[in-house]
């Protein structure tokens, strides 16, 4: 339906291997591996690693 789907991974391999990431994304699309409320996943758009640091503050 023209929307985007985001898949998130805990603890991705770092540094990333672009060829492996692209291949995994191709496999997800080819095998229709995930269900989306917007329909089938038909293409890959982008991949990125977002790093978020959480530091507890003792109070």
TrEMBL record:
It comes from the Bacteria. Pfam families: DUF2922 (PF11148). InterPro entries: DUF2922. This is DUF2922 domain-containing protein. The lineage of its organism: Bacteria, Bacillati, Bacillota, Bacilli, Bacillales.
